[in-house]
Each structure stands twice: as C-alpha cells, then as structure tokens.
Design goal:
Largest sheet: 3 strands, antiparallel
Number of strands: 3
Strand content: 5-15%
Structural class: mainly alpha
Distance between the termini: 21 Å
Order of helices and strands: HHHHHHHHEHEHHE
Helix content: 55-70%
Shape: elongated
Strand order of the largest sheet: 2-1-3
C-alpha cells in the first residue's frame, strides 16, 4: 500500500472512532451539567439563574478530551512515520527527530475552547427553551442528550487538525528534499467546495500556494479547502 493510501486509512479510522465515541462524549458533557446543577441547587437555583453558572464555569470535561486527544496524537505519529519513511526512500532526507515531532503534534490539536463555547451556547439555548415551557432539569437533560453537544464541532476540528498535521509534515520533508511543486489532490464530488473543484488536479508552486485564499480563514497550505476538507497536497517528485 502506498503512503497516501495508508494515510487516508489512518484518517478514516480516526473518523470512525470519533463517530463511535460520540455518545460517550455527549454523556460526559451531560454529567458535567449534572455536577454543576447539584453543586448550586441548594441555593434555590432556577433554570434562568443556571445560565450564569454555565457561562462562568462550564467546560469540556477532561475525560471527554482525553480519548480524543489520544486518538489524534496516535494518528499523527503514524502519519509522521509514514512521511519520514517515504522521503527517506526517495531522497535520503533524515526523518523528524522526536523533539521536532512533538513540536508539530502540539501545533495541530483540537480547539477545545472553541468547542466549549459552542456547547455553552447550545446548553443556554435549551435552558431558555425549557424555562419558557415551565419545565425542569429532567426535561432539560433529555433535550440536551438529543442535541449531540459539541459532537459535530469536535469531529470537524479533530479531522481538520489531523489533515493539517498530514499536510504540514509532508511540506517539512518535501522542502528538505528540494520539492518545488505540489498537486492539489483527492476526489471531487458534488458536495466538494467550489474552491476545491476549481483547484483539484492542478499543480502549484509553494509561492502560489501561500498566496491562495480558501475563504475559510485557514491556511491553504495546511488545510486546503478549509474545515473538514478531505483533499491533500501531493509532492511532485521529479
């Protein structure tokens, strides 16, 4: 199996693992909500009052973060090893040192503060809806369990972080190997972004890549079309 096929399998395996763990992630968030409610319930807390507590103290539980971070780091390490081997085979470029790899792992992690912000807003929206209906915490918990709290954002940001690591690691090796051109690669389908449809299959220099704008606020070098993009850069090795 060629390196790219192996890397795409690693990405697919992580996507499936995140989907399998989505229920556990959601349950951990509801447990955190229960903990905050029990902690402040003795103060004759109303659901409307609870909004302030959520804004001030709610965060993504450490248990929910841990499995996602471990899955991402393990996937990143595997991808780093594959690129190290590939460029060593084609150009005798030395692999990344353990220190270099750890630095790159630290750059491409899940943005949990962003997930927490989106999750807090979802919880607040449900609290207000429940309070307006004159219902209590039991109904609120039931409604939140159906919302997939932070789950979609988590998968998007984790998949994006892994793709960023893949592309950035490849570029680190490719530059050392003297590669000058790169192909915007992958499969185009009806749901692909217009940016990807326009550029997929074309070859660009590094300067051209650095000047591209995907309109997503993310670097085209590391993220191509943006969040959740499944396309990738392929080094054109002469």
């Amino acid at each position: 199996m060629d390196p790219r096929s192996q890397i795409e399998k690693i990405k697919d395996d992580m996507r499936l693992a995140l989907e399998d763990n989505s229920g556990k992630f959601n349950a951990a968030i509801v447990r955190e909500l229960d903990y905050l409610w029990r902690r402040y319930r003795s103060q004759a807390l109303s659901l409307e009052d609870f909004i302030w507590i959520i804004d001030q103290q709610f965060t993504i539980p450490a248990t929910a973060k841990a499995s996602i971070v471990n899955q991402l780091q393990e996937s990143e390490r595997k991808i780093g090893e594959l690129w190290s081997q590939y460029f060593g085979d084609v150009s005798n470029v030395e692999g990344l040192s353990a220190t270099d790899l750890e630095k790159m792992l630290a750059l491409y992690q899940v943005d949990f503060p962003k997930i927490a912000k989106a999750t807090r807003q979802t919880i607040v929206d449900e609290i207000r809806r429940t309070a307006r209906a004159g219902q209590g915490i039991t109904v609120l918990r039931s409604a939140l369990k159906k919302r997939g709290l932070g789950d979609g954002e988590t998968r998007t940001l984790a998949n994006t972080a892994l793709a960023q690591f893949d592309n950035s690691t490849m570029f680190e090796f490719a530059k050392e190997a003297g590669v000058e051109r790169y192909k915007y690669d992958g499969v185009v389908n009806p749901n692909s972004r217009k940016f990807c449809k326009i550029n997929c299959g074309k070859i660009f220099s590094m300067n051209e890549i650095m000047s591209m704008d995907n309109g997503q606020g993310l670097s085209v070098l590391s993220s191509l079309g943006g969040y959740n993009c499944t396309h990738f850069w392929t080094p054109v090795v002469e």
